[in-house]
């Protein structure tokens, strides 16, 4: 029985991944106006999505800054076209993880952690175009129907063929492989959107190259072996990062690219006001390896003051003796730039205090209090200085 079970799992996984390297990039579907639900399943999916959107719309986690929202929406419209993007309601959600979502009623979200990790308008367009691909291909509706029918069939299967483990494994494999097929279809249509816009289509693959690097760095930082596989696991709902990077780069090579800019400078300018908050969110995730890798990627071309400060905070929070020495050096380098905030003096003072350099620590903490006398922790810091 175990042997048959394993054989069924391997067969289902092989079917799910077959043909990925040889597939051609599909053309964009013809544009149609916003779709309306027509049957019970679709109306049910719509009701759930509408209720989710109502809760999200009223949530304190939504970032409502008009300039940031206009920028992100502008990239979406330039990527998929003005007509297509009219049917989307876009929400930027303050969650420090790389993710974006699309619901069948036209609700799209992108998380703040994604904004931190992307480098250009083209990469943002790749993420948003992927999500819009789910919408245009109506994956949300198909997924709703598939999950409903799949779980119903599993329930009947448990009664009708209770002794056939291979049958149940095959059903579960198809259930999750369906999601992988959706993800790949959205990836491929997203590349098409980029190629049809003025953004370079290779941007999509660049994202997943860096996501692999960050995942490896996180694993190494947590004393685990990096795990980068081409084939998705049997129960995985998405292709692996390696598979995505491979087929997206191959797809981009097939497509003619416009001569437009990737929009690196425009992206940096739009994210700059939010960079300190996004970096602080990342540092607090307790992911030293991944955060150090991410900071290094963001610092390609030079360590800006916010990046130096974030790196100093990362090392100080881990708190190994050598980390404290490194942190003090990063704080001092940021301060020497002349544009560091008062918090750099606070961090420097705390790092020096933990390194038993009491007088230099007090000097730095006094400067922090001078620059920010109304700080929330002013009384605590004043106690440290007076001790």
Description:
The protein is mainly alpha-helical and 387 residues long. It folds into 2 domains: 2-254, no CATH class; 276-386, Tetratricopeptide repeat domain (Serine Threonine Protein Phosphatase 5, Tetratricopeptide repeat, Alpha Horseshoe). It contains 18 helices and 3 strands. It has helices at residues 2-17, 40-57, 66-80, 82-85, 112-117, 121-136, 139-160, 165-196, 203-221, 241-254, 264-271, 275-283, 288-298, 305-318, 321-336, 342-354, 358-371, 378-386; strands at residues 89-93, 100-102, 107-111. The chain has a 3-stranded mixed beta sheet, with helices on both faces. Strand 2 (100-102) and strand 3 (107-111) form a beta hairpin. Helix 13 packs antiparallel against helix 14. The protein starts with a helix and ends with a helix.
């Amino acid at each position: 029985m175990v042997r048959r079970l394993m054989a069924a799992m391997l067969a289902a996984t092989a079917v799910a991944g077959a043909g990925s390297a040889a597939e051609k990039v599909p053309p964009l579907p013809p544009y149609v106006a916003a779709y309306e639900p027509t049957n019970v399943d679709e109306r049910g999916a719509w009701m759930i999505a509408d209720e989710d959107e109502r809760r999200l719309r009223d949530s304190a986690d939504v970032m409502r800054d008009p300039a940031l929202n206009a920028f992100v929406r502008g990239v979406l419209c330039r990527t998929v076209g003005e007509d297509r993007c009219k049917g989307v309601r876009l929400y930027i959600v303050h969650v420090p993880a790389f993710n974006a979502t699309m619901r069948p009623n036209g609700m799209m979200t992108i998380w703040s952690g994604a904004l931190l990790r992307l480098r250009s308008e083209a990469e943002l367009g790749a993420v948003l175009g992927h999500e819009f691909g789910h919408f245009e291909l109506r994956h949300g509706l198909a997924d709703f129907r598939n999950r409903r029918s799949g779980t119903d069939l599993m329930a009947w299967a448990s009664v009708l063929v209770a002794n056939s483990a291979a049958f149940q494994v095959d059903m579960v494999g198809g259930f999750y492989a369906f999601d992988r097929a959706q993800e790949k279809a959205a990836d491929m249509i997203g590349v098409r959107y980029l190629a049809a816009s003025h953004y370079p289509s290779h941007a999509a693959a660049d994202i997943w190259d860096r996501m692999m690097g960050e995942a490896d760095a996180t694993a190494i930082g947590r004393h685990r072996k990096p795990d980068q596989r081409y084939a998705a696991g049997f129960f995985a709902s998405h292709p692996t990062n390696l598979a995505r990077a491979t087929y997206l780069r191959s797809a981009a090579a097939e497509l003619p690219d416009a001569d437009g800019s990737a929009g690196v400078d425009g992206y940096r300018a739009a994210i700059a006001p939010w960079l300190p908050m996004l970096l602080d969110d990342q540092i607090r995730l307790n992911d030293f390896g991944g955060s150090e890798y991410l900071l290094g990627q963001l610092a390609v071309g030079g360590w800006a003051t916010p990046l130096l400060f974030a790196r100093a905070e990362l090392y100080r929070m881990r708190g190994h003796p050598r980390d404290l020495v490194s942190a003090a050096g990063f704080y001092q380098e940021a301060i020497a730039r002349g544009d560091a905030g008062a918090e750099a003096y606070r961090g420097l003072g705390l790092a020096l205090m933990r390194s038993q350099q009491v007088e230099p620590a007090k000097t730095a903490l006094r400067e922090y209090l001078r620059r920010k006398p109304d700080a929330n922790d002013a009384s605590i810091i004043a106690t440290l200085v007076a001790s």
